[in-house]
């Protein structure tokens, strides 16, 4: 099979991880390409009028990994780094994540190569609507359901939903998740990923016998996932001693005021400008001593260059793909020192509550917030238990165990269904 269309360092990571799991599971060579390579990939051009009158065309993508368990599900990323290899890797990770959590979805991901922070609100709306318009032939509530990711938010989801609904001539809330409550969203979705990360960190601390009120944490990334994780950990008594975003990194061993940081970002859109005294270099922050290190921004930040220097007890992967396979090998040597909560387990709260949102939209029956979080924590608890039990039993890393569970689910469904999906 000629697979040259998917390339780049992030895709190579997903491919390498899959090869390791496939070897561990002894998957036949002839079954591997079908499990790894996406079912479909779309590339679209999205022209918009800029505020200065120019017409600019942006490149958009959507990758649907497999349709074996139901519709595909996945976020849409607006970032300058977006290419089809990165989107394909994120779609593949979504598949293992959904399967590990027992959700009836395959993985998908989409994105546009654009810096959303450089667009005006009107330009962002035009681009969001145009992207959905181009996607209409390929998505649907029972085909592929979109959600937010880096660089997109509730408002973008509302524009997606509205554009799709205008085309259909009726309101179809269930086409996207992560919408505002006023547009058919669910209670709890905005906080779901970060609260899920904090729940699992809490379980890992218990597992290691560390009291939350004596623990410290450093969080990289202060967007949806990073800021809610920091806030939720602080509410559990954890002292947040470091945070960063793409504009600044801060470190204060006495603890940072997370609510104050959130207020600053709400007002200025970034962490820069909070304080001059606690500034630190972004790379130094990652290797400062702490109990919990949460990468919650971009891929490939824990690498062969810093994996041996990281000084945490728990590495909680809020972001997708923050640890390279080379770094993984180093972390595996440090299993007794560092407890890894791998991305497909650690940040699954987002897609789990997205699933709840889709179910509520389809049924037109909305739940109380307590029901959302009770059900979320039950699923996360089961995935956590399964992952650590399998890792222990087969003497493999937590990442390998979590992926093995996910891949096994997809593999079993493909075996029973045949070649189509
Ligand atoms: P976001 O756009 O809300 O926030 C991203 C944050 O990362 C911003 O604070 C940005 O400044 C920061 N950042 C960007 N580059 C950085 C760098 N080089 N160093 C430090 N910080 C940097 O995005 P998000 O939704 O919070 O997503 C963050 C990560 O979590 C992504 O990997 C995403 O795929 C993953 N994720 C998100 C969700 C969700 O529900 N939003 C769910 C699961 C996983």
UniProtKB/TrEMBL annotation:
**Binding positions (substrate):** 73, 97, 354
Active site as annotated: 109 (proton donor)
Kindly list the GO molecular function terms attached to this UniProt entry: glutamate dehydrogenase (NAD+) activity; nucleotide binding
Write down the position(s) of the site called Important for catalysis.
Answer: 149
Q: Name one Pfam family in it.
A: ELFV_dehydrog
Positions binding NAD(+) in this chain are: 193, 224
Q: What is this protein called?
A: Glutamate dehydrogenase
Query: Which organism is this protein's natural source?
Result: Bradyrhizobium niftali
């Amino acid at each position: 099979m000629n697979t040259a269309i998917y390339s780049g360092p992030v895709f190579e990571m997903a491919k390498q991880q899959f090869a390791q799991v496939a070897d561990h599971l002894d998957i036949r060579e002839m079954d591997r390409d079908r499990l790894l390579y996406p079912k479909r990939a779309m590339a679209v051009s999205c022209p918009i009028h800029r505020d200065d009158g120019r017409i600019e065309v942006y490149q958009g993508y959507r990758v649907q990994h497999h349709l074996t368990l139901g519709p595909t599900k996945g976020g849409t990323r607006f970032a300058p780094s977006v290419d089809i290899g990165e989107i394909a890797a994120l779609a593949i990770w979504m598949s293992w994540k959904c399967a590990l959590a027992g959700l009836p979805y395959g993985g998908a991901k989409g994105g546009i190569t654009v810096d959303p922070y450089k667009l005006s609100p009107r330009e962002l709306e035009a681009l969001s609507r145009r992207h959905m318009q181009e996607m209409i032939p390929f998505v649907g509530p029972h085909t592929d359901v979109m959600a937010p990711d880096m660089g997109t938010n509730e408002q973008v989801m509302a524009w997606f939903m509205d554009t799709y609904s205008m085309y259909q001539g009726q309101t179809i809330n269930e086409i996207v998740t992560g919408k505002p409550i006023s547009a058919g969203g669910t209670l709890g979705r905005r906080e779901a990923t970060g609260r899920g990360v904090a729940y699992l960190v809490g379980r890992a601390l218990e597992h290691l016998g560390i009291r939350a009120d004596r623990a410290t944490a450093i969080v990289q990334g202060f967007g949806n996932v990073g800021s809610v994780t920091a806030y939720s950990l602080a509410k559990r008594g954890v002292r947040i001693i470091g945070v960063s975003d793409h504009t600044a990194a801060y470190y204060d061993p006495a603890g940072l005021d997370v609510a104050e940081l959130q207020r600053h970002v709400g007002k200025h859109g970034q962490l820069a400008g909070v304080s001059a005294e606690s500034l630190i270099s972004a790379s130094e922050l990652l290797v400062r001593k702490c109990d919990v290190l949460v990468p919650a921004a971009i891929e490939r930040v824990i690498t062969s260059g810093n994996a041996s220097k990281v000084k945490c007890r728990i590495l909680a992967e809020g972001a997708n793909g923050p640890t390279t396979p080379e770094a993984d090998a180093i972390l595996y040597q440090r299993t007794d020192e560092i407890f890894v909560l791998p991305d497909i387990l650690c940040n699954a709260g987002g897609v789990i509550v997205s699933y709840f949102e889709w179910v509520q939209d389809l049924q037109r029956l909305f739940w109380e917030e307590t029901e959302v979080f009770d059900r979320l924590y039950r699923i996360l608890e089961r995935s956590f238990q399964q992952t650590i039990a399998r890792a222990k039993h087969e003497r493999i890393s937590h990442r390998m165990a979590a992926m093995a569970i996910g891949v096994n689910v997809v593999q079993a469904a493909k075996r029973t269904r045949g070649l189509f999906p």
